[in-house]
Fold:
Amino acid sequence: MVQALKVVVERYDPDRSPAAFLQQYEIEPRPSMTALELLVEIQSHVDDTLAFRRSCQIGKCGSCAVSRNGAPVLACRTVVGGSAVRIGPLPGFPVIKDLIVDRQRFEEKRARLVATRMTDSQGGGRGAAIPDASIAHENVARCIGCLVCDAACPVAAQAGERFTGPALLPANVSSGVRSVRNGASVAPVDPQADYCSLCMNCHRACPSGVALNQLNVQGKRAWAQTRGLNVRDRLIARVELMGRLGSLVPGVSNLALRNALVRRAMEAGLGISRSAGMVEYASPFRRWYAGHANRVQNPKHKVAYFVGCYNNYSDTRPARDAVTVLEHLGIQVSLPEQRCCGMPLIGNGDLEGARQRAETNLAALVPLVQRGYDIVATCTSCSLMLKREYGEVLRLQAAGALAGHVWDLGEYLLRLADAGELDRRSGPVALRAAYHTPCHLRAQEIGLPFVELLSRVAGVQVAVLDAKCCGLSGSYGYKAEKRGLAEKVGQQLVDALKREAPDLALSECGICQTQMRHGAGVRVGHPVSVLRNALLQKGGE
Amino acid sequence: LVQIDSDVLVIGTGGAGMYAAVRAAEAGVQVIAVDKGLVSRSGATVAASGVAAVGPWHVPGDSPDVHLRDTLAGGAYLNDQPLARILVEEAPARVQELERWGLHFDREADGCYVLDQAGGHTYRRLLAVSDRVGLQIAKVLETRLIYSHVQRRSDVVITSLLVRDGRCAGALGVDLAAGELIQIGAAAVVLATGGIGQLYPATTNPVNATGNGLALQAGARLINMEQVQFYPSCLVYPPSLRGFGMGLQEYARLYNSERERFMARYEPEVMERTTRDRLSRGIYSEIMAGRGSEHGGVYLDATWLPDESFRSFMHEVELCAERGFDPRRQPVEVAPAAHYFMGGAEIDRDGQTSLPGLFAAGEAAGPVHGANRLSGNSLADILVFGARAGVGAAQHARAAGPLPVDADQVNRETARLAGLLQRGPARLQASAVIGQLHQLMWTHVGVSRRGGDLEAALENLREMRSALLPQVGISGPGLHHNRSLATYLELEGMVRVAQAVTACALARTESRGAHFREDYPARDETAPPQCTVVLRKGEELEVMSRPAQITEVEPQGEAG
Structure:
């Protein structure tokens, strides 16, 4: 007898009781049983009152989206494993009955866009739109309208009417919602597209393989083009320029940024929120690198370090520690010429600006790769750009040459550790740390390499926080009109940190760190710094 | 009971229903479209691939005439030729219209359409969007529904058509979303409820394709109900992919439980590369003879094919991979599954049935495809005849005007539905009866049939209806998303339709197209092709026949 599978279903039937309740079923598992199969089994043989949707059962109709252990999935494409599973309605939607949710908010926005922006003839000239010619039709054609992406979106969960989630864009673009502008067909874009924070959680959740990374940037760009990039967005997207200016005389910059009057003026004049924790500036890492003594003889490996704006201009310690760790392991670290990776630019709809910087970076990095260098980044947004978005979003052919050679630092070190090249006797370091996963690390689907590495260090305890996005999402949370929303999105993280009250809060992403420090008042750092201490046997943080 | 009125009511929102609704709305009448699941997502359209249309883009030599001849030969001349002519003539215009509406068909680098070859088509003439053209059609049509202000209602299960003075006057059913009974008065009704794949244990169809017998109950004539097309190689295992078409049969090898490449017995020359109906019969015979695989299929072995051969089957490979197996590396178990229904409500050129005011389109209608439907012709059909039914319904609604409903009929039906809710659970489960029905249809009214089996099946179905259905439990108390009631209502319709299918299969004493009789293994070529027609007389079915309309192409023999 096979052991029964415990299935807990989150149920709700307003006709019977105003409260939702949990019901447990025991089902005899079958090989590669899907979540949908489980539900059908319950409905047909155990409890015919269970309500859920299904139709094609092969991933094309988009009817059967639910949550599995809290995460949004398409039930027919989700194999359940283990001895227990919890199935609930699609998160973030009003529940009608059991697993049937109300799609009204999405449907209404879609109908409104069709009613207000769609025309069969010339005249739909106003408002943000994506030219038909620049749409990747084979990509959007994959959208099945299941709304799993909406459920995965941390912004939509908090934004109410302002942002129903990412589904609206592919749903409209792929279903012939068009208007005509200057004789050419364009796909109108709802203003809500600007609320996307490019956290990429939707892209990762999509069961149908829609490249939402691409489409969301196109949506933001369409919006930005229509109203013209304002001074604030131009400024805020140029993280690199701000960094260069800020780190000229860091003390003065930071004093100014901490000054309430200055912040109030920034908010009034530029729309930069005065309540967001501000990035601070430091003497650039590059200056330190130039001065440090490189002692690696006969290097085992060669890496080119992509330091990124934040670790170059603001918090340079992770960069210094990264170099120290790599060199300690006998790896030669070179610091190629580089510019901003471009993420803040695409986040503000400036595709051209991002492409320009990417081309400069590729010109420097591709020859290094050809000479046997691996590219390593401490910032997870930078590594995501280099690994994936240069090709997929910016559509730069040259990015193909980097494939397989770009590494998140943790990923790179973990690979070395697994090959036995990392000292196993590192530590001990007495530390109770809490770790927050940056969205752009999650997007890389490489697990949590630094958590894995630190868990091997004697004395280090790392709690992985159960939290979604930090909310700040690059420059997103600095915009006055989005600040309140960003705080709401990040509240789960702040609460988790306050509960955990760690000695040190860790995350690879400088923006996440800023939000963590500002929101929860905890000490923050990059996990490489803990590893550095462990390897150099210094103890403590 | 909620009462609403409209000029036109469309039941079912797959491609045919949506096209009809859009056309009717464009004609300026008020339109309501209802679906028992989510509007636009619940039909077979979303999962379909390839639309056959011979337009100005055709390959040299091709023409609507050739497309027509292929369609008729494929249909074993059981098509009404005027309908088939309309199909091939109007498909290109509908395709172009979809493109104007924002659908992007696959194109070659030079801008020409990618045209795919498919079985039974003399030339390459299927347009595609990767393997997702059906999904794109559904999405574009949904946008047109919104754009043309069609009132859309999901979760409405229609239980009967309202008839007054020999005319269709609307429909009555359960609004599961509102938790109310609903009466929709309409001067014209379009039935676009799709196929009947769910009568069989394995089907490529969506769960909603149960057949409902609405037209039969209302007194309309149904045609060629015995014609059920099976897709030869659908997975029987794992259970979550039961009925999933593997589309590889022409390239793979088939083995029975005794490791014999059994098609050698049936088609020694072409083996697996034979027509779908013959392949289905070969597989079915092996399974019925007890040489089936562990889970009731045969083994499809494609492991010897190079990986490139799977390029157009990546959705298949993906779904299998999620379940931990790889058809490129290991044999899979397959059997024929119900795929397409050539039978349905008999329609004229405007999509009108024999019941004035009732129109039908798509898989719910016939006899466009005769005794077998060619690949790509079903999407062409839903576009062409969906549009026609919409225009026809709007014209009829304008000309005939509103019709008061028959209060007696409404009272009877509402009382019946209220009565069902009183049954309560804990008696016989609907799923158990559905299981019995599946088994019966598979063994007695399946891929190959025998007179004696069909008679036994009819008897069985009669009993199922009179003795079993009244015992099936229905959980109450409310109507709000009451799946138990919805399943029961579907089961009632399934049994009704199964009776019609079986009665017609018994009446057709020849083998033609998808209908194969072991006791009459040849096509009857002594007389012009005859369509079966079935009509409800009280609680009984009356089966008749009439010649297929032959207006252009003389029927050829089986060899021809």
